[in-house]
Amino acid sequence: MSAAFAAALLVAPLLWLLRATWAMPHAVLAPQxxxxxxxxxIYPCLEEFIFRGALQPALARALARRASRAPGGFSAANAxxxxxxxxxxxxxxxxxxxxxxxFPSLVFGWFRDRHGTLWRSIVLHAWYNVGAFxx
Length: 135
Hints:
Helix content: 55-70%
Number of helices: 5
Distance between the termini: 29 Å
Radius of gyration: 15 Å
Largest sheet: none
Number of strands: 0
Low-confidence stretches: none
């Protein structure tokens, strides 16, 4: 396991804490098996295939003439994909804390850019989703 991947895994609990302190109050319900399966298996795979597997590479090709990297080595395609990802979560959750998904999305996209594969993004996405069941 690379140091960058380990660091990305270790940051998740900090974001869980930040989201828990910033999120709108909600009733804590016992997780249902279907909700757990969706959050930890289906959504990470589906969203990563759509956002990091399709949208990010398409944006990278479209922006190839103006290829640029923001500080930290994040591509413009990754930043735009992360904005779309956060917007989707805000529409679905109607909670300002949903905007925090922008930051893990940048990390997921960074791994996609660096390694050309989705498996790290899917694993990280599933791990970050664990926070939905904590609190």
